[in-house]
Amino acid sequence: MKKPTQYMRFSALLVASSCMALAVAAHATKSDADLEPWQLAEKSEVWEPVPPVVAAPPGEAPSDAIVLFDGTDLSAWESANDGGEAKWAIEADGALTVVPGAGGIRTKQAFCDVQLHVEWRSPSEVKGEGQGRGNSGVFLQERYEIQVLDSYENETYPNGQAASVYKQTIPLANASRAPGVWQSYDIIYMAPRFDDAGELEQHGTVTVLHNGVLVQNHVKIEGTTEWIGPPQIHAHDCAPLYLQDHGDKVSFRNIWIREIKEL
């Protein structure tokens, strides 16, 4: 009989090793059936990264939020007209009120992806109708407006009522309170992404809760919110939050923002 060569001996060893590995794998799979439920649960636990601790006292801004207006000063804001001092009025009750004709105001700091909380109030004395009644706006990155309007028993085009993405997305509900009553917006905003050549890679999205009611559910922002004409898309970096002077004495308070960052 011909003696086995070194190559034949190596091949036999490789086959034997493979069979042993398959046997071990089969045994490991079978062994799962012998584990206790808590042991099986442990196999799917992920321990890192550990999320940072954020204190969230009732009725207050979260501990990691940037407070943009607390009722006392406008140090976080500037005039959108010339970059000078913001010329809106701080009322005795801590409200920040539009001074018609003074122009809009914007934050000195620029933002990208954010969670925003802002409370607002239309004038208690009702004047005008439609878009001429308690009109202002919260502009994300100075370009994308979440409409502020007295939409309590006030007929207008639905893609321009309170909590609409102006001229783009109709809110899922009209959660407006009566004139002179404080209201709230809680906004989750993810900014659009552009490549190095300035081409759009991903549209921005926004989720809005109006007085705790979901009215915009992760909707796509098509581009700038134009009064006339279709949305426009222009590449941009992080940009300020802007509040609009539309000629009505709309008030704001308790404005804070959290930058959304990956773990």
Distance N to C terminus: 68 Å
Average pLDDT, to the nearest integer? 91
Helix content: 10-25%
CATH class of the largest domain: Mainly Beta
> In one word, what is the shape?
globular
Please compute the radius of gyration using only Cα atoms: 29 Å
Walk me through what this model shows:
With 263 residues, the chain is α+β, with helices and mostly antiparallel strands. The protein folds into two domains: 6-42; 66-259, Sandwich (Jelly Rolls). 12% of the residues lie in helices and 27% in strands. A hairpin with a 5-residue loop joins strand 10 and strand 11 (200-202). The termini are far apart.
Question: How would you summarize the topology of this molecule?
Answer:
Elements: H1 6-31, H2 37-42, E1 66-69, E2 77-79, E3 89-90, E4 96-97, E5 105-107, E6 114-121, E7 136-140, E8 144-148, E9 183-190, E10 193-194, E11 200-202, E12 204-210, E13 213-221, E14 242-243, E15 251-259
Antiparallel strand pairs: 1-15, 2-5, 3-4, 4-15, 5-14, 6-9, 6-15, 7-8, 7-14, 9-12, 10-11, 12-13
